[in-house]
């Protein structure tokens, strides 16, 4: 096996494997280092996203949504179902089957593109005239390879709390919360962010009584304020009990479950007893034990690697992408950066507009946005106009019994350029792509409004919101 490569990627998550594939497409000799092992002890590609993140969580979200439909919503369609039951083991097996199919798919892509998978942990050893020496260890005898270019794509891990030891059973992070062996009667979640809301929603739909404790005073502070208010109202109606401005004191476990001591927003001492606890308080970059000090590369106080707009570190031919660098910790952001770096190495001049990267929360209804919020634009002193249109009067939304939420289009008051689009509603993750395309092309709200959208479809709500920005919505 070759010991020197044009490009070595450390990490085979969405950023890393995409970077490897694109570099190979461009004719480079490529190796990718990955040490992840699945629950069976087998080495697997795909990183956190495919193994214990995006893919398995969406599988469980879909399964739990189907159960909720059968249990509570099919009667609206004139369909009566009695005695619906959950086979949790089969549900989890379905999830694992999807994960395996996806990770094996990346193995196929590696073979197709002649990418060498170096199995183990990658660590910088030194820099020489021929490039960077990287040790790969953990699977058999350690070996050292040389890379003319290195892409660090090691992703992130769940942030843990010092007073809440994660054991994966009673106290779980995102990984353990995807594999509970039974539906908890009472589930506590610390953190009302994306992961906390998604996983809390899964287990609520399957029958858990869910309480979410959030330290911040605002709910979904990153969202447009109108979307956040709508989401809080809908989630409360669904049964998620969300408490804001909470200060956690201690977490103790026993044979009976988990007990959380906390102070509420008024400073009053409270106790929450639950069968299980999910800790979802953000993520931290995986930059430890990479041997960065051996090549003179440091990290920030928060563990991130500093890079420029093209993901270059301060060292020549060393790049970093995805969760280990600035910007949102999103799989598709990492993918775009992977492509960008491969093309930079090839001598091309690619570009990413980070303002056009969409965000999604896969609750029900889904929440998605791209660009800036109304509160951000007003804080900048930007003159804006906004159009909002509800799903409640859309024929397709009514037909599929998913008529909650709205689309909001924000544009510059003078030029009409679209500055942000915010959606809470059915299929928001798909609908937001139109907004991202519009913003990439610097479209005006009038451009969206003039495009013929199919009828009946959810996409018509996007068009109506764009029309509403000019106060000429047709169906309101």
TrEMBL record:
Catalytic function, reaction form: N(6)-[(R)-dihydrolipoyl]-L-lysyl-[protein] + NAD(+) = N(6)-[(R)-lipoyl]-L-lysyl-[protein] + NADH + H(+)
EC number: 1.8.1.4
Disulfide-linked positions: 49-54
Domain of life: Bacteria
Subcellular location: Cytoplasm
PROSITE patterns given in the database record: PYRIDINE_REDOX_1 (PS00076)
Residues binding NAD(+): 191-198, 214, 282
Key words of the record: Cytoplasm, Disulfide bond, FAD, Flavoprotein, NAD, Nucleotide-binding, Oxidoreductase, Redox-active center
Pfam family, any one: Pyr_redox_2
Residues forming the catalytic site: 455
GO CC terms in record: cytoplasm
Sequence ranges assigned to domain Pyridine nucleotide-disulphide oxidoreductase dimerisation in this UniProt record: 357-466
Enzyme class: oxidoreductase
Keyword Membrane in annotation: no
Domain FAD/NAD(P)-binding: 5-338
GO biological-process terms attached to the record: 2-oxoglutarate metabolic process
Binding site for FAD: 58, 122, 154-156, 323, 329-332
Cofactor: FAD
Homology family: Belongs to the class-I pyridine nucleotide-disulfide oxidoreductase family.
NCBIfam families membership: lipoamide_DH (TIGR01350)
Note, other: The active site is a redox-active disulfide bond.
Protein name per Swiss-Prot or TrEMBL: Dihydrolipoyl dehydrogenase
Organism: Pararobbsia silviterrae
Gene field: lpdA
